[in-house]
Specification:
Helix content: 40-55%
Largest sheet: 5 strands, antiparallel
CATH class of the largest domain: Mainly Alpha
Strand content: 5-15%
Strand order of the largest sheet: 10-9-8-7-11
Shape: elongated
CATH topology of the largest domain: Hypothetical protein af1432
Number of strands: 11
Structural class: alpha+beta
């Protein structure tokens, strides 16, 4: 119940504010000491109003249970500007003399940003470096791949190579005609066959330079290969797919799913995660698990709605990004969505976006 009147003691002090949700202690107090009260019917439309009306017990439980998120990747505006300009240069100057050095420098800047901030996670709601799809996608994939790579157990030098491969994984699309690359409708069989060659085109562009490692080359060439051997461009079996390609594949699929393109709508992030989790025949399990450990879908303090209709606040993230610990704003109850069997049927159905976010 949400009280529709303030409860004032004989000294004029406000004991319970108007609009507050009543916890069990308050209800028992009112039963013993107050003849009757008014309560509001229905719920406020704004979750921030609900949060503002929380009883003291629920506020204390939220504060006591709250665990800060792991350190997340965050780029300052200068880094975003440099990386955005750098990746555009690479895609527009694949044959330039300074190409390899530029790619190495950009990758190094991404690795430095992550290691200096001790970042171990990616907030899926914040990752964004450019508004232009090809460049944004390349940077997002490289960033996610590096965080996945950390959980995968890669060394710093391997992370730098992985970042380079992630940045350049779609370089071959610079060889695809724009009318095919940006076609708003369904591709013809011939156009799709050409599009599937982009990873091979990128591999050849890099191999011609003679300066990139075998791992970077294979990361670019094989990022669309699948563990069941049904990928492209070569249909490579699992044992021949390089670990960089296995990691990039996960980041690439996720980012493609959540990005709106002329020919498709973006999937909600939670649906994209569910789709990724179902691709066990196509994606490597270690890379997939590393990805799920690397991402934050609902940051601590996010306001969400549960499938039972109750608004809730996220107080701790778990190893499964879709199933954090939350506290119900009506009941004051802790819901451990990952570990409590009583919460097995509960899911988060949406997240409340605060104004300005």
């Amino acid at each position: 119940m949400r009280i529709d009147q303030a409860i004032i003691d004989s000294s004029g002090r406000e004991l319970i504010a108007k609009g507050a949700y009543l916890d069990d202690f308050q209800i028992e107090y009112l039963r013993k000491n107050i003849g009757g009260i008014y309560v509001s019917e229905g719920e406020p439309d704004d979750l921030e109003e609900i949060e503002a009306a929380l009883p003291a017990f629920t506020r204390e439980l939220i504060q006591k249970s709250r665990v800060e998120d792991r350190a997340k990747v965050q780029f300052n505006t200068e880094v975003v500007k440099r990386v955005g300009e750098g990746i555009q240069y690479l895609f527009n100057n694949a044959h330039a003399d300074g190409f390899a050095d530029a790619a190495t420098n950009i990758a190094g800047e991404l690795v430095d940003t992550i290691t200096k901030s001790n970042a171990v996670a990616v907030d899926l709601n914040l990752i964004k470096c450019s508004d232009e799809y090809t460049f944004k996608h390349s940077v997002d994939v490289a960033t996610m791949a590096m965080i996945i790579g950390q959980n995968y157990g890669l060394s710093r030098e391997e992370l730098r190579e992985l970042a380079t491969a992630g940045l350049l994984h779609d370089l071959g699309k610079s060889q695809i005609p724009l009318e095919v690359l940006n076609k708003p409708g369904r591709l013809t069989d011939e156009e799709f066959a050409l599009m599937k060659q982009h990873s091979l085109f990128g591999f050849k562009l890099l191999k011609e330079r003679g300066t990139f490692s075998d791992g970077i080359l294979k990361g670019v060439l094989q990022h669309h290969e699948k563990m069941n051997g049904r990928g492209y461009p070569l249909g490579s079996p699992a044992e021949q797919i390089h670990k960089y390609a296995r990691i990039i594949a996960v980041a690439d699929v996720y980012d493609a799913l959540v990005t709106e393109r002329p020919y498709k709508s973006a999937f909600p992030k939670c649906e994209a995660l569910e789709m990724i989790m179902s691709m066990t025949g196509e994606l490597e399990m270690d890379a997939l698990h590393s990805f799920l450990r690397s991402v934050i879908l609902y940051s601590v303090d996010s306001l969400v709605t549960l499938s039972n209709g109750e608004p809730a606040k996220v107080v701790e993230n778990t190893v499964n990004a879709m199933r954090p610990k939350v506290i119900g704003l009506r009941s004051g109850k802790m819901y451990d969505l990952l570990n409590d069997v009583n919460c097995a049927s509960l899911v988060i159905v949406n997240e409340y976006k605060r104004p300005g976010t």
